């Protein structure tokens, strides 16, 4: 059985959760958009249900909560190394289904891709997820075709309705609090979309032969290599390292892990002055095939979850979904050229 709560009651639940958790959810940033007089929706700390944006897709993903944009791994002096303290509070993150699937991709990269990443795991182990139901998709979403439109892997789900807030709880530790504040119990199933306006088709015959296609050449001039697509993507995981030395003592400082982008200059620079994938078309090829070919070949699922944020954020109006839909013709081009 699920729970039905009024606004007053759900805010009391959030107030109680806030004692032990930092609650993160999509929230409106007035005048924070890319253009003047436009708003933006980012992940941030919330304390009430009214702050949470349910009816609009967040412009940025939740990713920086688990993978900070700039994360200090350790501090160092001439003769010692010290790790930063783990945050005192745990975290609750409100996610849509596509982003909940993205967590699985991050876990695969940081926990099951060789040795566990200590810094990711210590944050990941302290997080609980609340699924935000999706009653309808947004213009650039293609989660249905990526099979990420539905998820059961949550601690609780939350949907807004005319009756109030509908909750399906899977965390026994929250049952007592929810029972004490619910107006009534009812069957609750998280809402999810079954069709999207944007559709994608990943050809079953897709192979590395697609690298020979001329379809990538268009991005040499169209893409400006800003990396925005990587930074809003909930599954991009690349980073670089920075050693920061303090000005008052050049022998002390800290090492930071900082987000990096496969679409920007310098990402493929190597010792000796070499650099790979200098053209933006080559970078686009690498990114696309990593999302819908390489990762699946290794892990059985596509890395892309179809959230569509990369389509939304690109200043050159390059559509990742459209690029995916060009793959079939690209394969035909290569086959015809070689026959």
Automatic annotation (TrEMBL):
InterPro entries in alphabetical order: 4Fe4S_Fe-S-bd, 4Fe4S_Fe_S_CS, Helical_ferredxn, Sulphite_reductase_A
TM region(s), chain numbering: none
Keyword tags: Iron, Iron-sulfur, Metal-binding
Record-given protein name: Anaerobic sulfite reductase subunit A
Gene Ontology molecular functions: iron-sulfur cluster binding; metal ion binding
UniProt xrefs under Pfam families: Fer4_22
Domain 4Fe-4S ferredoxin-type: 212-244, 294-323
Species name: Lacrimispora algidixylanolytica
């Amino acid at each position: 059985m699920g729970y039905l709560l009024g606004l007053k009651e759900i805010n009391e639940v959030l107030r109680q959760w806030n004692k032990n958790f930092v609650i993160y959810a999509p929230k409106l940033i007035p005048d924070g958009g890319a253009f003047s007089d436009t708003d933006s929706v980012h992940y941030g700390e919330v304390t009430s249900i009214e702050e949470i944006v349910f009816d609009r897709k967040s412009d940025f993903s939740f990713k920086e909560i688990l993978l900070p944009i700039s994360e200090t791994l350790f501090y160092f002096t001439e003769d010692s190394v010290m790790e930063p303290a783990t945050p005192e509070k745990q975290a609750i993150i409100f996610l849509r289904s596509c982003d909940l699937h993205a967590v699985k991709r991050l876990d695969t990269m940081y926990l099951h891709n060789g040795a566990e990443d200590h810094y990711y795991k210590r944050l990941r182990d302290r997080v609980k997820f609340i699924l935000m139901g999706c009653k309808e998709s947004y213009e650039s979403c293609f989660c249905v075709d990526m099979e990420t439109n539905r998820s059961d892997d949550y601690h609780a789900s939350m949907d807004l309705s005319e009756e109030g807030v509908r909750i399906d709880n899977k965390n026994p530790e929250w049952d007592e609090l929810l029972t004490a504040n619910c107006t009534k119990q009812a069957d609750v199933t998280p809402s999810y979309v079954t069709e999207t306006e944007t559709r994608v088709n990943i050809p079953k015959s897709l192979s590395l032969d697609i690298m020979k296609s001329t379809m990538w050449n268009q991005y040499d001039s169209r893409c400006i290599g800003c990396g925005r697509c990587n930074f809003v993507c909930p599954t991009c995981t690349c980073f670089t390292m920075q050693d920061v030395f303090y000005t008052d003592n050049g022998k002390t400082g800290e090492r930071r892990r900082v987000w990096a982008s496969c679409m920007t200059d310098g990402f493929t620079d190597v010792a000796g002055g070499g650099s790979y994938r200098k053209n933006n078309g080559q970078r686009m090829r690498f990114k696309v095939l990593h999302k819908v070919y390489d990762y699946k070949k290794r892990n059985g699922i596509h890395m892309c979850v179809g959230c569509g944020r990369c389509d939304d954020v690109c200043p050159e109006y390059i559509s990742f979904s459209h690029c995916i839909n060009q793959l079939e013709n690209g394969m035909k081009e290569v086959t015809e050229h070689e026959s």
